[in-house]
Every structure is written in C-alpha cells, then in structure tokens.
TrEMBL record:
Protein name: Alpha/beta hydrolase
InterPro entries: AB_hydrolase_fold, Chlorophyllase-like
Organism domain of life: Bacteria
Length: 267
C-alpha cells in the first residue's frame, strides 16, 4: 500500500490524447562509438509527461513497434525509442553480447533527454517529468531492461516492462529502491521460452506481475495490431504505467480484472 501512495503522490494522470503524437528524431550517443539515434513521441498538448524508454529486440527495428509506441504516447506518456548500434536489424556489425552495454545506453539516453528538457527553446523543454521514468523492452530489449534495474541500475527508473524477455546474461542482481515490473510472455514463444521469462520474474524482489498470453508467440503480440493479443498487451502495459507512474487506481482495478492469466503480485 505504501508503494502505491508514494507512486501517486503529486503525480496527476497524464491526459489521453486521441491525436497522433508528435515525433522528434534526435541524434543522441553514448560516446563516439555508440550512436543512439532516438525517436521521441510526445503526446499532444503541453505540460510534463512521464517518460518511457523502450528498447527494441535483437535484429529488430524501432519502426516495427510503431503502433505500440503510439498507443503509449496517446495515453499521455512521452516515449523514447533509441536504435542501439550493434543489435538493430540494419546494423553493419551485429553483436548479441552488446546487450551488456545497452543498460548504460539507456542511462545515457535518459541523461540526454532530461538535459534537453531543461534547455529553453528545445522541443523537449518542459515536456518530461524527471520523477516519473520507466524502461521497457522486447526480447533482448527486455533483457536490457532487467539489466537497467539490476546490475547496471539507473536509480531514476521507477518501473520496468519486460516483453518476451529474460535475465539471460544480465543476471538477476536487482538492487536499489523497489521498481515494480510487468512481464508479458507468450506460451508459444520458441525464441525466449516462457520458462526463462518466469525465472527472471520469480527473482524480482519487488512488486511484480506476469501476464501469460496462451496463444502468444515471440514477436506478433508486440508488433502487429492484427494479432489477437496485441490489444491486450497494449492495454495492460498502459494500465501498468498509469498505476505505477501516476497512481491511477482505476488502472490498478483493470489490471486486477485481467483474470487467471495474470499473476498479480503488485500488492
């Protein structure tokens, strides 16, 4: 109960916007050899918004998640989606173990965005709330998220979303202040099995939840609105963010109503 009260204190729910979000394309980097071109989706209207940094999967492109990113932005969240240098689909040199450097890239992106948000005249000026930040990702991006809340903890992260991810190679050394996590995984995932996702979930010492998609595969529920589970993923992740970053009690009620596929240990 105390965690929920802290999460909601002084944090009004972001207003939903039916209008398409505006998209900024920023040339960010984490040093000279780690370019991080980043798309930032901003909800319509002014004011400060909670920030979600989203990490794409291995050999994937940010564009493949456009519908999900837009869904979150229309719900009132600023969404930053970097392209990571050695794990995206068009990388000249692919390196799956660059995963171990990506949590620090998440921190670098947050640093850059918050700095710009303090600069008068910048398109991000006054648009981001530094006290309400979450990370999320799909597949290797989910593993990156686990790392950013564990071994490479960024203390500004208040929540995490792990889509078809695990703790492979990043470990489960969760540390720092509690940051609730939502895991979403398909039973039909043959790339990162649901058992791997559950193992990471069970290791989380904080409030947490696990949504099982009985028909879900590794990619389709997160990339394609035509997939029967896509809307469920979009709505559940949005309600989780609303609960954790804005203290929205109605969002918490909707999560509870997800039924037997939702292992609810959020408290």
């Amino acid at each position: 109960m105390g965690l929920l009260l802290v999460a909601g204190c002084g944090a009004p729910a972001p207003p939903a916007s039916p209008a398409p979000p505006s998209v900024l394309r920023l040339d960010l980097a984490n040093g000279p050899d780690r370019p991080l071109p980043t798309e930032v989706r901003l909800p319509g209207g002014g004011g400060r918004h909670p920030l979600l940094v989203f990490v794409h999967g291995y050999t994937c492109h940010v564009a493949e998640y456009t519908d999900l990113l837009d869904h979150w932005a229309k719900a009132g969240f600023a969404v930053a989606a970097p392209t990571f240098p050695y794990t995206h689909g068009a990388a000249a040199k692919l390196d799956i173990m660059d995963l171990l450097k990506q949590p620090a890239d998440v921190t670098a992106v947050i640093d850059a965005l918050l700095a710009r948000a303090e600069q008068p005249g910048d398109p991000l000026h006054g648009r981001l709330d530094p006290a309400r930040i979450a990370a999320g990702g799909h597949s290797l991006g989910g593993m990156t998220t686990v790392g950013a809340l564990g071994r490479w903890r960024d203390p500004r992260l208040k929540a995490g979303i792990v889509l078809a991810g695990s703790a492979r190679d990043v470990g489960t050394g969760f540390q720092g202040e509690p940051a609730p996590l939502l895991f979403v995984h398909g039973l039909g995932d043959r790339v990162v099995t649901i058992d791997q996702g559950r193992a990471a979930y069970e290791a989380v010492p904080w409030p947490k939840a696990f949504l099982t998609l009985p028909l879900g595969t590794h990619r389709n529920p997160f990339m394609f609105p035509s997939d029967p589970d896509w809307a469920r993923v979009a709505d559940a992740t949005t309600d989780f963010l609303r609960w954790r970053l804005t203290g929205d009690s109605s969002a918490r009620t909707r999560l509870t109503a997800l039924g037997p596929d939702f292992d609810d240990r959020l408290g």
